[in-house]
Amino acid sequence: MLTGWEPHGDNHYTVTGQWPRLHSFFTAVNGHHDPLLIAETVRQTGLLLAHTEYDVPLTHHFLMWDLTLHTDPTHTHIGPTPATVTLHTTCTDIKHRATHLAGFRLNTTIHRDGHPTATATASFTCVSPAVYQRLRAPHTQPHQPPLTPPPPTHPHHVGRTHPDDVVLSPTPTPHHWHLRTNTHHPILFDHPLDHTPGMLLIEAARQATTALIGHPTHPTHITTHFTRYAELHLPTHIHAHPTHPHTTHANPDTSNTNTNTGSNTHSTNGNHTHTRNTGTGTGTGTGTGHTHTRITGTQNNTTIFTTTITTPPPTT
Q1: How many CB atoms lie within 10 A of CB 11?
Q2: Structure pTM?
Q3: What sequence ranges are listed for the domain A-factor biosynthesis hotdog (predicted)?
């Protein structure tokens, strides 16, 4: 998504990017660029600046602890050409371990054609291969292969067109799904990982929101907090419920069940340097008809992430 960057001193940077008119996974939502495409742009910005401006070695691992995104749909429409965007970015809460960057917070305002289009914050930590191996070794044994993805919910119910892009599997309980983690997905797993990536969990939250409110969604606000690694060999449960009164739709897939369960009780806290309150998050798009949804992901009855999503009413 990114095309260049320029430092301005005092940890301020201008990053440029381009959003394609068509993307195989971050598909258009009612003629607008996918907000998760914007979130991915922010994530990539953090990695770019860490490597280029703070000398984080390419071999180091990144852990994203939270991401908050506000979008203005007025300026996210898909035009006749790819959208050129500028991210005015500041890095704060910078921490070092010895001579290497250990963590930072990214704060950015995204402009398109001179118009403020989105704002975002995200926090990251960076760890060496040796530290990462010590963190992950108890949870990545050879005898713990990834779970086979359970059957997908119907793509239409979660705002998707292809089953391979569905990350939720139905259960008999309304507004409760099993996570589908396909480690061969070319976008969500564009390189090998020993855990479920954060962007897949945010996509699960968006799909759960779509199923809950009953129509494709263009979130205007997303807040996500990650508290633990989502292990590939353990079942992940996704729960969604409205945080403000509005009409909900019954889970259209409760006639199909999946009984995939696990009994492994490893606690997989990925937070090796500090703890972070998961919080609840609040939406900002509080106009008439906006909905607010809270999504929680759990493994072994332990929360691994929480997301709150605000969406506008459906277009007519």
Answers
A1: 16
A2: 0.85
A3: 2-126, 158-251
